[in-house]
């Protein structure tokens, strides 16, 4: 079964490192055909254009293996938006927002121009949620309701402290997608039964998790092969087509 990983961070981060050569080795080993890659934390927080050049170079060098996220800090305002537009016009297919790392809340006015660009360029938006109160699943759901033309990925599913809000969030916005990472097979089966396989994306969140483990959990979900095909690659291919 073809696997298209919806979120991997590549490069040298503050607390992790995943070089492209090692990522490709893991992808080959675990039969991941393609990955949606994000720049590391420094390039999300401050060095946005540097991060775009890095990801674009990888996408152009390995077009069959990589698709790329842009990541702009909304605090950069107009200059940041210009950098974001260039990145999308040059071939990146998504936008990653990390409210905690980038220092904003999703309801700040500086976020709206970024989402308008996402709408204009049909870019999928990955928003990282976790324990921080400025990046909660229900906040993402409200943003998704305000921008029904944009497809959003509920990054990390609110793990750990706000995981309980993931299902209510998905219930409120049809354009909000779950990812498999950090979730157990029974939980994922329940998501499929409740929202349909069309609303779930395979993701490993490497290198912050173990790719092999996340793939094994995915294969253990007790759903049909056709549903697994959608989660494994079909849904993400549709979102970025």
From TrEMBL:
Keywords: Lyase. InterPro entries: ACMSD, Amidohydro-rel, Metal_Hydrolase. The keyword Transmembrane does not apply. Gene3D superfamilies: Metal-dependent hydrolases (3.20.20.140). The keyword Lyase applies. Residues 44-239 form the Amidohydrolase-related domain. It comes from the Bacteria. It holds the Pfam family Amidohydro_2. This is Amidohydrolase family protein. It comes from Paenibacillus solisilvae.
């Amino acid at each position: 079964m073809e696997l298209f990983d919806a979120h991997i961070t590549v490069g040298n981060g503050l607390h992790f490192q995943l070089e492209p050569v090692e990522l490709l080795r893991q992808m080959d080993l675990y039969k991941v055909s393609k990955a949606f890659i994000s720049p590391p934390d420094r390039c999300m927080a401050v060095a946005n254009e540097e991060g775009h050049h890095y990801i674009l170079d990888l996408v152009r060098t390995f077009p069959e293996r990589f698709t790329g996220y842009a990541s702009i800090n909304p605090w950069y305002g107009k200059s940041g938006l210009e950098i974001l537009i260039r990145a999308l016009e040059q071939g990146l297919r998504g936008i990653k927002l990390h409210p905690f790392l980038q220092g904003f809340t999703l309801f700040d006015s500086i976020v709206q121009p970024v989402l308008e660009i996402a709408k204009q360029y049909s870019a999928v938006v990955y928003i990282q949620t976790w324990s921080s109160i400025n990046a909660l699943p229900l906040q993402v759901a409200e943003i998704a309701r305000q921008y029904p033309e944009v497809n959003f990925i509920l990054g990390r599913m609110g793990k750990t402290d706000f995981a309980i809000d993931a299902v209510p969030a998905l219930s409120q916005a049809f354009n909000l997608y779950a990812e498999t990472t950090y979730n157990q097979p029974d939980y994922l089966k329940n998501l499929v039964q409740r929202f349909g396989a069309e609303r779930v994306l395979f993701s490993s969140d490497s290198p912050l998790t173990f790719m092999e483990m996340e793939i094994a959990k995915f294969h253990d979900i007790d759903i049909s092969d056709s549903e697994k095909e959608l989660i494994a690659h079909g849904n993400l291919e549709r979102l970025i087509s």
